[in-house]
Amino acid sequence: MKSVLVSVISAQTLPNFLLIKELRGLYSSMVFISTMEMEGRGNDSMSRSRWIERAAGLAEGSTPRVIVKEDSWLDIQQKLQDFFSDQNTSYAVNLTGGTKVMTLAVFQHFAKDGNSIYYVPFPKNEYCELFPNIHNQALSIRYRCTLSEYLAAHGLYFIYNNELCKDKKTTLDFFNRVKRKQFKINEIDDIRNAHQLSSPEDKKYYSGGWFEEFVYHFIRKSFKVSEKKIALNVNLFRNLDDVEADNEYDLMFVDENTLYVIECKTSAGNSPVNARKNLDNFLYKLGAITRDFGLNVKSYVFTLTSFRDSENKIKLQVEKRMRILGVKGIFDQVSFNNPEEIIVQLKKKGHG
Known about the structure:
six-stranded mixed β-sheet, 352 residues, 37% helix, Rossmann fold, alpha/beta, 20% strand, 2 domains, elongated
């Protein structure tokens, strides 16, 4: 008997992608149940199903679609009956996406002997069986996506530059040198005179690149992420033929199917007023990413400027602005006195 994986497409694409990868080998073909809105209303670059195909390494447009009216029970029912008429096929259905009407209609149609229906309670890395064994324990999703897969599943292309200016030891030694100076970066000759250096590589490195490279090494070691899961100086494009990037971020990586986005700034400004103004710009930039990266994204600012109050806590106004914009946290000069604690907080906030 032929086995088909059926995915109900919605704005959140990662649950569909993850189950496609997790169940690979258990189905012989796929079908998408989608709507005109999810198909981009004819705009292929905005089609959620094409994003999923690209992330999964499939030819875009190669998977059959059943396009339904999301709010019409009769339309959904009729189209499902017309398309899924083969009696010699079993179906595994991912019911995570879709409207309530779609969910109920699809469940009713496929809740038959020989079929199975699943739900992915994302961002948990697991999936639950809704039919026929609703009381079974949730099953683990063992598949872990790469950075390129995560971004492709959200309709994004990217270029990046992981070529480091200095070796790891040089960067770690330089960080410790700055730390011994209590992060008074203007007292470090290499940093203070960075723009006067003749080597473009050194100019980039001592102007702030060293901090990005330190964070890169720090994250790779602490999260044990491979090169396929982390990138520096990431430029994102919605369309492949775009000349200018839509957005640029200092560092991005994925861990446990969660996307982390980090802006690295050695200095936010030379005065409290400028520092706060620049920090607001960083936060606004990070606050806009949920639209592009889905619900399971964690964004942070790493800086060697201090944003502490008289009690050595992150200032209340900064905390409030982060909550409003959905930015998960800021790690400042004080935080980098104990970098290991940063990882504890990242993992706590990232997977809590």
